Amino acid sequence: MRTVDIRVPATSANLGPGFDALGLALSLHDEVRATLTGERGVHVTVEGEGAGEVDSGEGHLVVKAMRKAFERMGVPQPEGIRLHCRNRIPHARGLGSSSAAVCAGILAARALADSELSDDDVYALATEMEGHPDNVAPCLAGGLTISWSDHDGLPRMVRLAPDQRVRPVVVVPSTRLSTEAARGLLPKDVPHKDASFNAGRAALLIAALTRRPERELLLAATEDRLHQGYRAPAMRASADLVERLRAVGVPAVVSGAGPTVLAFSTSDTQDLIAPEVGNDWHIQLMDVDPVGANVQFPETR
């Protein structure tokens, strides 16, 4: 038997204006222990988020990602896989739970196969499985990431280190929303003035997060006209909370496809968030994860 431990962070994509491009790694993690047993069959146990809900066999997303990675590496598929998942990232809330599972599976397969699959290949395969790279990039690399596709359609990324004063706050509702449902509300075309507006705000957001995390700059930099308004009917409570927080000066956005709300806490906004949040929400102050996905073999700990 051979075992590997994978630790992957939650992520928040878009960050307001950076639709499908910007992502942030958060200090909330799922942990996966993957073992090749040498025996026939796949067995998955889950504690925490998704326990009793997700597939416990071949249909589990980590297993699917492992299988896809073994195939991509040209490695024979192992018959026996055992997973133990300790999940802390809420599912279907806009915090990158599926990206975390995909990245964990691919990294586990690479480690267990002792393959030379490059980091770029891991990133490309994870993006292929997810459909877009905005959550995948920060999950793998940590920090603040900018992702795009080159002229050959291959995903690329740049990792930046946010200013240490940046403190993300996630406000998680009890309700869920699938990424597919949220994306289905987006129009095929947007006005040129809205695209121009977001380009400027996304550039300003990079400056604010990495050099000047001041409330006034962050508040302006997190404005968006490309996706949040279109998605609001599917998560009215989230849209209303974002509006209330912004009205009192808190830089707040929808995290990813929602319905979680992401706020940036500064020294003069920390006391403004809780009064706007009702009992149906869970507030958690976080740090930015600077490392991203981590791989260890138990015997080396």
Provide structural commentary.
The protein is of the alpha+beta class and 301 residues long. It has two domains: 2-160, 2-Layer Sandwich (Ribosomal Protein S5, domain 2); 167-285, GHMP kinase, C-terminal domain (Alpha-Beta Plaits). It is built from nine helices and eleven strands. The strands form two sheets. Strands 1, 2, 3, 4, 5, 6 and 11 form a seven-stranded mixed sheet that branches. The protein has a four-stranded antiparallel sheet with strand order 8-9-7-10. β3 (41-48), α1 (61-73) and β4 (80-87) form a beta-alpha-beta unit. 47% of the residues are buried. The model has no long low-confidence stretch (mean pLDDT 94). Residues 61-143 form the GHMP kinase N-terminal domain. Its EC number is 2.7.1.39. Pathway: Amino-acid biosynthesis; L-threonine biosynthesis; L-threonine from L-aspartate: step 4/5.
Fraction of residues in helices?
25-40%
Query: Cα-atom Rg, whole angstroms?
Result: 19 Å
Largest sheet: 7 strands, mixed
Q: Which descriptor suits the 3D outline? A: globular
Runs in which pLDDT lies below 50 for 5 or more consecutive residues are: none
* Gap between N and C termini: 18 Å
CATH architecture annotation name of the largest domain: 2-Layer Sandwich
Q: How many discrete domains?
A: 2
The percentage of residues in β strands lies in 25-35%
